[in-house]
């Protein structure tokens, strides 16, 4: 769980500038990626490409803290109930469920991240994660914090199935072992 959070933190150095550009393109702020990068750097310097970095991390770390332990718990429960190791497709379903739950729970943080990343330069309507959540809830209702939950849950659920299914399949191929040995699933970690 902490390793995943550390990996997300390291990966965010590269991911955040792409996320800022993507979010601004989706919001209709710029007509191309090149134009977006040039405009953001001209107005804010390189720092502008990292606008919303804290909110991305504030979304990713809770997501990881939920997804990875849920995945492991679902695998253990299913393996015990089944009485044998899970097949890859079963592990993929566990990953899908874990991703769906983590996505739904962290959608408010995703909404805030998007608002912080796409606000116009010089117009800071949203300042910080908690203040942004409060403002959105006050002005638009609590439901606005869950805008986009369904598509987010669907794509992350699918991604979780592919990621964890692929992970378990690769692990099985490399170790020539079942993906979730029953004995290992009952040991305390």
From TrEMBL:
SUPFAM superfamilies: Mitochondrial carrier
Highest taxon, organism lineage: Eukaryota
Major subcellular site: membrane
Keywords, ordered alphabetically: Membrane, Repeat, Transmembrane, Transmembrane helix, Transport
Keyword Lipoprotein among record annotations: no
Residue stretches of each Solcar repeat: 1-77, 90-173
Intracellular or extracellular location(s): Membrane
Assigned GO CC terms: membrane
Bilayer disposition of the protein: Multi-pass membrane protein
PANTHER family, per database record: S-ADENOSYLMETHIONINE MITOCHONDRIAL CARRIER PROTEIN
The family this protein is said to belong to: Belongs to the mitochondrial carrier (TC 2.A.29) family.
Protein known as: S-adenosylmethionine transporter
Organism: Cyanidiococcus yangmingshanensis
């Amino acid at each position: 769980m902490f390793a995943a959070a550390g990996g997300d933190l390291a990966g965010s150095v590269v991911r955040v500038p792409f996320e800022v550009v993507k979010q601004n393109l989706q919001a209709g702020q710029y007509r191309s990626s090149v134009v977006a990068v040039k405009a953001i750097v001209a107005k804010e310097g390189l720092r502008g490409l990292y606008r919303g970095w804290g909110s991305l991390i504030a979304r990713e770390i809770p997501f990881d803290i939920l997804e990875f332990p849920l995945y492991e718990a679902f695998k253990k429960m299913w393996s015990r109930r089944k009485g044998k190791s899970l097949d890859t497709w079963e592990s993929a379903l566990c990953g899908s469920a874990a991703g769906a739950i983590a996505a739904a729970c962290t959608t408010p943080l995703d909404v805030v991240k998007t608002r912080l990343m796409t606000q116009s330069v010089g117009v800071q309507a949203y300042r910080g994660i908690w203040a942004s959540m409060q403002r959105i809830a006050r002005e638009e209702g609590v439901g606005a914090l869950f805008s986009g939950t369904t598509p987010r849950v669907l794509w992350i659920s699918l991604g979780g199935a592919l990621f964890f299914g692929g992970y378990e399949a690769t692990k099985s191929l490399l170790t020539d072992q079942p993906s979730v040995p029953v004995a290992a699933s009952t040991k305390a970690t």
